[in-house]
Design brief:
142 residues; alpha+beta; seven-stranded mixed sheet; 3 helices; 7 strands; 27% strand; globular
Amino acid sequence: MSKPSSWSRWPSSPHLRFRCSTNWHAMSDEEAATIAGTSAAEIRARVRDPSTAADWVSLVYRLPEGLRQVLLEELDRGNLLVEIAESSWPTPRSIIGTMHDRFHGEGRTWPPGVVWQQVNDPRQWREDVSEILDDQEFLLMT
Protein backbone atom coordinates (compact mmCIF):
# COMPACT_ATOMS: atom_id res chain seq x y z
CA MET A 1 0.00 0.00 0.00
CA SER A 2 1.23 3.50 -0.78
CA LYS A 3 2.13 6.03 1.88
CA PRO A 4 -0.63 8.41 3.06
CA SER A 5 -1.40 11.38 0.87
CA SER A 6 0.27 14.69 1.53
CA TRP A 7 -0.17 18.03 -0.17
CA SER A 8 2.57 20.31 -1.38
CA ARG A 9 2.36 23.93 -2.41
CA TRP A 10 3.97 24.90 -5.70
CA PRO A 11 6.35 27.67 -4.66
CA SER A 12 6.76 29.08 -8.17
CA SER A 13 3.03 29.71 -8.65
CA PRO A 14 1.81 33.28 -8.12
CA HIS A 15 -1.48 31.83 -6.85
CA LEU A 16 -2.28 29.29 -4.15
CA ARG A 17 -1.68 25.94 -5.85
CA PHE A 18 -1.48 22.55 -4.20
CA ARG A 19 -0.81 19.11 -5.61
CA CYS A 20 -1.35 15.72 -4.01
CA SER A 21 2.22 14.51 -3.61
CA THR A 22 1.29 10.83 -3.47
CA ASN A 23 2.26 8.91 -6.63
CA TRP A 24 -1.36 8.58 -7.72
CA HIS A 25 -0.43 7.37 -11.21
CA ALA A 26 0.89 4.10 -9.76
CA MET A 27 -1.70 3.38 -7.08
CA SER A 28 -4.50 0.85 -7.12
CA ASP A 29 -8.17 1.86 -7.12
CA GLU A 30 -8.40 0.74 -3.48
CA GLU A 31 -5.47 2.93 -2.45
CA ALA A 32 -6.95 5.92 -4.32
CA ALA A 33 -10.33 5.37 -2.64
CA THR A 34 -8.69 5.23 0.80
CA ILE A 35 -6.83 8.50 0.21
CA ALA A 36 -9.96 10.12 -1.26
CA GLY A 37 -11.88 9.13 1.88
CA THR A 38 -9.17 10.60 4.09
CA SER A 39 -9.32 13.85 2.10
CA ALA A 40 -13.12 14.02 2.49
CA ALA A 41 -12.79 13.47 6.24
CA GLU A 42 -10.16 16.21 6.47
CA ILE A 43 -12.44 18.66 4.62
CA ARG A 44 -15.44 17.82 6.81
CA ALA A 45 -13.35 18.10 10.00
CA ARG A 46 -12.38 21.72 9.27
CA VAL A 47 -15.02 23.61 11.22
CA ARG A 48 -13.34 26.78 12.45
CA ASP A 49 -12.59 29.49 9.88
CA PRO A 50 -12.08 26.99 7.05
CA SER A 51 -11.04 29.56 4.46
CA THR A 52 -8.51 31.50 6.54
CA ALA A 53 -5.64 29.00 6.39
CA ALA A 54 -3.37 28.99 3.34
CA ASP A 55 -3.69 25.29 2.56
CA TRP A 56 -5.55 23.05 0.14
CA VAL A 57 -8.62 22.71 2.38
CA SER A 58 -9.04 26.50 2.42
CA LEU A 59 -9.31 26.41 -1.37
CA VAL A 60 -12.00 23.71 -1.12
CA TYR A 61 -14.00 26.00 1.17
CA ARG A 62 -13.75 28.82 -1.37
CA LEU A 63 -15.69 26.67 -3.86
CA PRO A 64 -19.41 27.48 -4.07
CA GLU A 65 -21.58 25.18 -1.99
CA GLY A 66 -22.91 23.08 -4.88
CA LEU A 67 -19.47 22.43 -6.33
CA ARG A 68 -18.06 21.62 -2.89
CA GLN A 69 -20.91 19.11 -2.49
CA VAL A 70 -19.94 17.49 -5.82
CA LEU A 71 -16.29 17.32 -4.70
CA LEU A 72 -17.22 15.59 -1.45
CA GLU A 73 -19.50 13.15 -3.32
CA GLU A 74 -16.66 12.32 -5.71
CA LEU A 75 -14.22 11.80 -2.83
CA ASP A 76 -16.78 9.56 -1.11
CA ARG A 77 -16.96 7.52 -4.36
CA GLY A 78 -13.19 7.10 -4.30
CA ASN A 79 -12.34 9.69 -6.96
CA LEU A 80 -9.07 11.31 -5.90
CA LEU A 81 -8.52 15.08 -5.93
CA VAL A 82 -5.02 15.42 -7.38
CA GLU A 83 -4.67 19.21 -7.62
CA ILE A 84 -6.48 22.32 -6.48
CA ALA A 85 -5.41 25.86 -7.29
CA GLU A 86 -6.42 29.46 -7.47
CA SER A 87 -6.25 30.57 -11.08
CA SER A 88 -6.70 33.65 -13.23
CA TRP A 89 -8.61 31.46 -15.73
CA PRO A 90 -11.50 31.32 -16.54
CA THR A 91 -12.04 34.36 -14.30
CA PRO A 92 -9.72 36.08 -11.82
CA ARG A 93 -9.43 34.18 -8.50
CA SER A 94 -11.21 31.10 -9.84
CA ILE A 95 -10.62 27.87 -7.96
CA ILE A 96 -9.95 24.85 -10.18
CA GLY A 97 -9.75 21.29 -8.88
CA THR A 98 -8.45 18.35 -10.92
CA MET A 99 -9.87 14.91 -10.24
CA HIS A 100 -8.23 11.59 -11.13
CA ASP A 101 -11.28 9.85 -12.62
CA ARG A 102 -14.28 10.90 -14.71
CA PHE A 103 -17.52 12.20 -13.16
CA HIS A 104 -19.74 10.06 -15.43
CA GLY A 105 -22.12 12.96 -15.50
CA GLU A 106 -24.60 11.88 -18.15
CA GLY A 107 -27.96 11.33 -16.47
CA ARG A 108 -26.63 12.35 -13.06
CA THR A 109 -28.57 14.82 -10.93
CA TRP A 110 -26.40 17.82 -10.09
CA PRO A 111 -26.94 20.36 -7.30
CA PRO A 112 -28.73 23.56 -8.36
CA GLY A 113 -26.38 25.88 -10.25
CA VAL A 114 -23.85 23.14 -11.06
CA VAL A 115 -23.35 22.32 -14.74
CA TRP A 116 -21.59 19.26 -16.19
CA GLN A 117 -19.86 19.41 -19.56
CA GLN A 118 -18.19 16.63 -21.53
CA VAL A 119 -15.15 18.12 -23.33
CA ASN A 120 -13.07 15.08 -24.41
CA ASP A 121 -10.20 17.14 -25.76
CA PRO A 122 -7.02 15.06 -25.28
CA ARG A 123 -4.94 18.24 -25.18
CA GLN A 124 -7.04 19.78 -22.43
CA TRP A 125 -9.41 17.78 -20.22
CA ARG A 126 -12.18 15.19 -20.42
CA GLU A 127 -15.04 16.63 -18.37
CA ASP A 128 -15.77 19.49 -16.04
CA VAL A 129 -18.42 20.57 -13.61
CA SER A 130 -18.75 24.25 -12.95
CA GLU A 131 -20.64 26.72 -10.85
CA ILE A 132 -20.76 30.48 -11.19
CA LEU A 133 -21.03 32.63 -8.08
CA ASP A 134 -20.96 36.44 -8.22
CA ASP A 135 -19.84 36.37 -11.89
CA GLN A 136 -16.89 34.14 -11.00
CA GLU A 137 -16.57 30.62 -12.44
CA PHE A 138 -15.28 27.68 -10.39
CA LEU A 139 -14.40 24.28 -11.93
CA LEU A 140 -13.70 20.66 -11.13
CA MET A 141 -12.05 18.90 -14.08
CA THR A 142 -10.97 15.41 -15.10
